[in-house]
Amino acid sequence: MEQIVFYVFAAVAVGSALLVVLQQRAVYSAFSLIVCFGALAVLYFQLGAALVAALQVIVYAGAIMVLFLFVIMLLDPQAERFGPDRFKKTALAGLPMAAFLAFVLLRVFPAWSPRGSGEPIGSVEGPKRIAHILFQDYLLPFEVTSILILVAILGAVVLVKHRPD
């Protein structure tokens, strides 16, 4: 069963990575990148790297992609207009997929299920060591990266303000 999950999520990761490059619109590429990040998080979790999987979801699929989508929508706010029919089709396709994903995850990772052992996954030593390295040894590069992301967002706002309509 674990091999099936691996192959399914590996195919999802590769397919969504291809869609990032092949999509016509930047918004669709960003959504495909979110799917790719989610599939990679499941693969990391399956490899036993629960911390890396959590960071993948929180940092990349959460924070970074919100910034990307914000900049994309800011640069071209008229790019996407969704009608009410579009959401109905998406919901009809999404519900069976969500049910299948929940079934597979509860079957492969019994610690998530109510019948599971409830034991914590991973050790505490790994996150402590990573936090120590990140916030003591590499504090300057960490802060410089956050400033660069902030400058990139401000640059996008300035470009939009000076763009002739």
Describe the fold and architecture.
The protein has 165 residues and is mainly α. It has two domains: 1-79 and 92-120, Up-down Bundle (Four Helix Bundle (Hemerythrin (Met), subunit A)); 123-165. The protein is 78% helix and 0% strand. It has six helices and no strands. It has helices spanning 2-22, 26-46, 50-75, 84-108, 125-137, 139-161. It is flat, with a radius of gyration of 19 Å. The protein starts with a helix and ends with a helix.
Write the topology of this structure:
Layout: H1 2-22, H2 26-46, H3 50-75, H4 84-108, H5 125-137, H6 139-161
Helix pairs in contact: 1-2, 2-3, 3-6
- CATH third-level topology of the largest domain: Four Helix Bundle (Hemerythrin (Met), subunit A)
Structural class: mainly alpha
Domain tally = 2
CATH architecture field of the largest domain: Up-down Bundle
CA-CA gap between termini: 55 Å
Q: Could you describe the largest sheet, including whether it forms a barrel?
A: none
Average pLDDT, rounded to a whole number, is 75
Order of helices and strands: HHHHHH
Helix content estimate: over 70%
Shape: flat
Radius of gyration: 19 Å
> Which consecutive residue ranges, at least 5 long each, have pLDDT under 50?
116-121
CATH structural class of the largest domain? Mainly Alpha
The CATH superfamily of the largest domain is NADH-ubiquinone/plastoquinone oxidoreductase chain 6, subunit NuoJ
**How many beta-strand segments?**
0
Strand percentage lies at under 5%
Number of helices: 6
